[in-house]
Specification:
Distance between the termini: 33 Å
CATH class of the largest domain: Alpha Beta
Radius of gyration: 30 Å
Structural class: alpha/beta
Number of domains: 4
CATH superfamily of the largest domain: Glutamyl-tRNA reductase, N-terminal domain
Shape: elongated
CATH architecture of the largest domain: 2-Layer Sandwich
Length: about 650
């Protein structure tokens, strides 16, 4: 099977009303049963079911895509009733893959760039994988989509502003009660959306935050790290009599707040109660909104609230759309390449591969967004002759001796000089007035950068180069180590965008090779089995480092944790149960440039964990304490049991 066998059927917030989505939604605890129902429909080899508050979609691989699409559509219509038929959409092949990539990157959400969907797609795929409902095709597609989702967020600004439904709910409460500090807010639930609400409320000065849950331990795990108070579910409902706002995000098939329950709690209130329902199916009975003093807001009501934020993200969304489309096309090509030699029509399949590759090239050439469009205005090949300032000889006089630099006008600096009449003296823009040097040949009468101290070279360069990335140069490791601008950049020869010395034209390879000329240790580490994809050209040293200065090791962030979280968003936290070495520094366990151990670990498992956990499993007998690890445990990995090793919102033992 290949990409032509992929089919996607679903409905979402743009095609179906909430009442329909509510009926079709699959609760987390019933996901396994729903997957078995779907696989039993017939004609399906692989399937993943994604059900969120905004959508339900089934991605499948089938030898009979048309039959699969029909049976999946019938299954959704049976659950959703008459409303579902008009809202269903079917996508196949490359269109299905592109749609999944957009969904995972948060581009198909009503909050563009929302962070929760990445985790929801990951959990849907994980559930299908563990149920053995996926195979080679969907494993490749979902793993690529999750990787691309992180890359799109890291490479654009779509996560700025409101990036979660929980954040939108908190902003709704903040706008209604801007004073906030004296207001009580009750949050019902313990999932990602509920946690996001609590985090955002705490950041917006709501100091009296109560987290209500049927399991008090879960409420405590979410509330205490963020300064909130944990209460039982019944106590939380009682607090509605005095609260200013309440947010419900509970996984329940029925409404947890009814009109009969709410009515007596509103009696005697002097101010209204804001109720925000983030559940699907709905947690609050719609009739509650009819009560005097109750303002009920649902998922659809929050859309207008985030419209302004979405408009500000328009340019970033345009860029993200292109990155997502290119990543989806790359995934499609990989699928076709794998399928080509395994089919009886290998030549035909490889023609499709080439066509897909051509499609990627066409997209990159013609689907260029406004942020990437170059200035296409005509520019003169050369500037008009201007009178030379006093003491200047002009570029023509320089080239009578320095003929090795005759192609200077093709370089980055040369093109800048040609386009700026103020720099008509060309060479003398950097080397100073050269008339006396041209007349006498005295090298002391011209500024020469050979042998010049690195600080003096930098001062000369910074007269023109005032980019914000250079602000921390004086505190950078390179400057303090006496590294000169000219050790990495060439002014006269390179035609590359960054004027890098090696190999001349600016590419990912040239940037990395420039760095590795000096950083030999990192170069050797990158050759180890586990490494970031720098040698493969998918990253560069500058993906993490600003060579011109940074806070910690020239990093592009205030700390290694913040930097790592830009790509590894699923491990970023905050968590109710923090793992101290992780929250302290990623470098406690990982070697960033390369390791002989899996996943860039400093040591192999279980020896890495044993550095801190000297006796993880002990037993006491006859007054003696000893290690009780079985042979299987000694040979295995700690993360076989403690899967949430980076932190957990559920268990202090970090077990799944």
């Amino acid at each position: 099977m290949n990409i032509e066998n992929i089919v996607l059927v679903g409905l979402n917030h743009m095609t179906a009303p909430m009442s329909c989505r509510e009926r079709v939604a699959v609760p987390k605890e019933r996901l396994g049963a729903a997957l078995r129902e779907v696989m039993a429909l017939g004609g399906l080899e692989e399937a993943v079911l994604l059900s969120t508050c905004s959508r339900i979609e089934i991605v499948a691989a089938s030898c009979e895509p048309a039959r699969a699409a029909s049976s999946l559509g019938d299954w959704l219509r049976a659950r959703g009733g008459a409303d579902a038929g008009g809202g269903l959409y079917v996508k196949t092949g490359l269109d299905a893959v592109k749609h999944l990539f957009r969904v995972t990157a948060g581009l198909d959400s009503w909050i563009v760039g929302e962070s929760e969907i990445q985790g929801q797609v990951r959990r849907a795929y994980q559930a299908a994988f563990e149920a053995r409902c996926t195979g080679r095709v969907l494993n490749r597609v979902f793993q690529s989509a999750l990787s691309a989702g992180k890359a799109v967020r890291a490479g654009t600004g779509i996560q700025t502003g409101i990036n979660s439904i929980g954040g939108a709910a908190a902003l709704q409460a903040h706008r209604l009660f801007p004073g906030g500090k004296n207001g009580r807010v009750v949050v019902f639930g313990s999932g990602e959306a509920a946690e996001a609400v609590v985090r955002h409320l705490a950041a917006k000065s709501f100091t009296e935050i109560c987290v209500a849950n049927r399991t008090l331990e879960k409420a405590r795990a979410m509330a205490e790290p963020l300064g909130g108070k944990a209460v039982g579910f019944a106590e939380g409902l009682a607090l509605l009599a005095t609260a200013k706002a309440a947010v419900f995000s509970v996984g329940s098939e029925r409404a947890v707040l009814t009109k009969e329950t709410l009515a007596p709690l509103l009696a005697g209130r002097a101010e209204p109660l804001l109720l925000i329902d983030l559940g699907l199916p709905r947690n609050i009975e719609p009739a509650c909104g009819e009560l005097a003093g109750a303002h009920l807001r649902g998922l659809d009501d929050l859309k207008e609230l985030v419209r302004e934020s979405m408009e500000r993200k328009a340019a970033d969304k345009e860029k993200a759309e292109l990155l997502s489309a290119l990543a989806a096309s790359d995934c499609a090509i990989e699928l076709l390449k794998y399928a080509a030699p395994r089919t009886g029509q290998g030549d035909s399949a490889m023609k499709i591969v080439k066509s897909a590759a051509a499609l990627v090239a066409i997209i990159s050439l013609f689907a260029v967004p406004s942020w990437a469009q170059a200035d296409k205005t005509e520019k003169p090949a050369a500037k008009a002759e201007l009178a030379l300032p006093a003491g200047h000889a002009g570029a023509a006089a320089c080239l009578t001796c320095h003929d090795t630099h005759k192609d200077f006008n093709k370089t980055l600096h040369g093109r800048k000089v040609l386009s700026n009449p103020k720099l008509s003296n060309s060479c003398e823009s950097c080397h100073g007035p050269g008339a006396a040097h041209a007349e006498t040949g005295d090298k002391d009468k011209i500024v020469s950068f050979k042998g010049m101290e690195s600080a003096a070279v930098a001062d000369a360069c910074f007269k023109c180069h005032t980019n914000k990335n250079l602000l921390l140069w004086k505190t950078s490791h390179h400057n303090q180590g006496g590294v000169s601008c000219l050790q990495c950049h060439s002014v006269h020869e390179s035609e590359g965008r960054k004027s890098l010395k090696k190999p001349g034209v600016f590419t990912e390879k040239s940037q990395t090779e420039t760095c590795l000329q000096c950083h030999k240790k990192q170069k050797s580490e990158m050759r180890l089995a586990s490494h970031h994809p720098i040698p493969e050209g998918k990253m560069t040293c500058a993906s993490c480092h600003n060579p011109h200065g940074g806070i910690d090791g020239n990093l592009k962030a205030d700390s290694s944790e913040e930097l790592c979280a830009k790509c590894h968003v699923e491990k970023a936290g905050p968590y109710a149960n923090e793992h101290p070495p992780v929250s302290d520094s990623c470098m406690n366990c990982h070697k960033p440039h390369g390791s002989a151990n899996d996943k860039l670990l400093k040591q192999a498992q279980p020896y890495l964990c044993l550095n801190c956990h000297k006796f993880p499993h002990t037993t006491t007998a006859n007054g003696f304490t000893g290690v009780s690890l079985s042979r299987e445990e000694q040979r295995g990995n700690c993360v076989d049991c403690h899967k949430e090793i980076h932190g957990s919102d559920r268990k202090a033992s970090f077990k799944d």
